[in-house]
């Protein structure tokens, strides 16, 4: 088959109706792989890689997809294909995030978003990798802020059913992570929580938001096949509520044993979600075979977030089974994998800097991740320059846990064990912000959630957020989110089409 005929087939596959299952598209594309790799045109190979990457599914190691995209990016740049070059960067953000390289995912996403030529649908598609990268760094507040600042307006204008469905699925995932924090479930998304009682009211409200976003996702894509991700989420919600029958209905029928040859990343993620749900339900003896089955197939996906999460869940499962030796072994494995993933992320960021130099545009525009604490062991995620001092992570927790308290900066510094001058200098260096600005931003984020999820009068919410009156609160809220508090509340009450700020593989990302 000559290059022209191959290109026509790729165009036809790319133009398939959106109700064509992704698995069918993937199989048809893979059938062309050997012909494309034997073609003389590098541009044809780059087009194949981009089309395949947009399916967000693979039977090959995730790192291979990212490496192919990096080469395709340079090919498109050399051939002055600006639109495809930008689409390639958007897809790199997705696959870097799936690899667990959150810093690199955020860097390339922000690079693409700064370009005025990025197509609107590709800009909105960046919401999922950006939000999931922040969530995995334990920065849910930044994920919500990114939604409001960078993606919500584009979402309101979007008419692509498949993309709308994905966005609502991601919003459901973020609410799911909020519910995990409120319930204080032991997961990789709650590693930074201090000991304390669960917040049952917040837990209930967040689970209701998960279900509302799942409904919105299904409504947006009513003509499309129901994605497995939505069923997974509902199954995990049922597990959190202790409803074993509903969990089984959603997950057991969906998560059969993976293919014995080369299961897809999605199939393994779904089996992991079943094991996770059984663990949360207090059935570790049933969870263990599922999680071990996932491990037996991990050579399929290579290093990814799924690989890094699995030992943590196995550790919790062995602990529940009364095997502390195996639990400690898995926890050590988890910490080692996190360290290896951070080093790999640093190497990816170095490649991105080289790519950026060749594309004549610097990287930047993202906030470095916090330092994480697991028991007595500190994990230092790799940042662009240098890790933050650990007291900034403790400051984040203090501010989020005591949102309604107006603490003086000197008191906070004293509680953190540093001088006020040291704290202010660290905030300016690592966050580009001040303590007062951080306190106000967090108070406004909590206020946005209260506006959507409660019927409290705006003046009461303003007082809780520390503002002297409703007028000053409204002015600050509009500056932060671009809408008035009353408009934000109306959007939240309008249903799925008007979702607001506080909206996991959901848990699989």
Automatic annotation (TrEMBL):
Region (Disordered): 487-509
Keywords (A to Z) from UniProt: DNA-binding, Transcription, Transcription regulation
Domain HTH araC/xylS-type residues, every copy: 393-491
Domain of life from the UniProt record: Bacteria
Pfam families assigned to the protein according to its UniProt record, in alphabetical order: HTH_18
UniProt cross-references to InterPro entries, sorted A to Z: Homeodomain-like_sf (IPR009057), HTH_AraC (IPR018060), PchR_regulatory_protein (IPR053142), TPR-like_helical_dom_sf (IPR011990), Tscrpt_reg_AraC-type_HTH (IPR020449)
Gene3D superfamilies for the chain: Homeodomain-like (1.10.10.60), Tetratricopeptide repeat domain (1.25.40.10)
SUPFAM superfamilies per UniProt: Homeodomain-like, TPR-like
SMART domains for the chain: HTH_ARAC
Protein name stated in the entry: HTH araC/xylS-type domain-containing protein
Organism: Sphaerotilus microaerophilus
Taxonomic placement: Bacteria, Pseudomonadati, Pseudomonadota, Betaproteobacteria, Burkholderiales
């Amino acid at each position: 088959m000559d290059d022209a005929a191959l290109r026509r087939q790729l165009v036809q596959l790319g133009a398939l109706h959106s109700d064509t299952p992704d698995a069918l598209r993937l199989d048809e594309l893979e059938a062309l792989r050997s012909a494309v790799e034997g073609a003389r045109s590098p541009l044809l190979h780059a087009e194949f890689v981009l089309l395949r990457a947009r399916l967000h599914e693979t039977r090959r190691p995730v790192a291979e997809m990212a490496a192919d995209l990096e080469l395709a990016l340079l090919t498109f740049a050399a051939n002055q294909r600006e639109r495809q070059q930008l689409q390639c960067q958007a897809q790199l953000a997705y696959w870097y995030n799936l690899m667990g390289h959150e810093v690199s995912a955020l860097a390339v996403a922000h690079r693409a978003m700064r370009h005025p030529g990025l197509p609107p649908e590709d800009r909105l598609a960046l919401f999922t990798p950006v939000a999931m990268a922040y969530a995995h760094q334990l920065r849910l507040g930044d994920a919500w802020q990114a939604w409001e600042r960078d993606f919500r307006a584009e979402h309101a204008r979007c008419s692509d059913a498949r993309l709308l469905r994905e966005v609502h699925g991601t919003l459901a995932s973020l609410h799911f992570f909020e519910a995990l924090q409120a319930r204080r479930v032991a997961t990789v998304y709650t590693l930074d929580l201090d000991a304390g009682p669960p917040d049952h009211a917040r837990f209930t409200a967040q689970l209701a938001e998960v279900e509302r976003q799942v409904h919105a996702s299904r409504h947006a894509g009513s003509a499309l096949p129901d994605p497995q991700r939505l069923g997974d989420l509902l199954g995990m919600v049922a597990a959190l509520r202790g409803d074993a029958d509903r969990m089984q209905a959603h997950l057991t029928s969906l998560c059969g044993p993976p293919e014995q040859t080369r299961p897809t990343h999605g199939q393994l993620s779904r089996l992991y979600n079943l094991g996770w749900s059984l663990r949360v339900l207090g059935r570790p003896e049933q969870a263990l075979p599922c999680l071990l089955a996932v491990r037996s197939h991990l050579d399929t996906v290579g290093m990814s977030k799924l690989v890094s999460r699995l030992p943590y869940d196995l550790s919790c499962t062995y602990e529940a089974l009364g095997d502390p030796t195996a639990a400690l072994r898995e926890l050590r494995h988890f910490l080692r994998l996190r360290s290896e993933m951070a080093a790999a992320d640093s190497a990816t960021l170095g490649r991105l800097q080289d790519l950026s130099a060749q594309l004549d545009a610097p990287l930047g525009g993202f906030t470095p991740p916090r330092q994480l604490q697991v028991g007595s062991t500190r994990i230092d995620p790799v940042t662009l320059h240098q890790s933050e001092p650990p007291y900034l992570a403790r400051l984040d927790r203090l501010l989020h846990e005591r949102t309604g308290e107006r603490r003086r900066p000197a008191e906070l510094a004293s509680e953190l064990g540093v001088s006020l001058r040291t704290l202010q200098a660290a905030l300016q260096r690592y966050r580009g912000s001040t303590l007062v600005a951080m306190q106000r931003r967090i108070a406004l984020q909590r206020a946005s959630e209260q506006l959507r999820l409660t019927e409290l009068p705006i003046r009461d919410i303003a007082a809780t957020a520390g503002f002297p009156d409703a007028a000053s609160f409204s002015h600050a809220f509009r500056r932060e989110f671009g809408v008035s508090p009353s408009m934000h509340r109306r959007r939240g009450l309008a249903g799925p089409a008007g979702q607001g700020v506080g909206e996991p593989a959901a848990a699989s990302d």
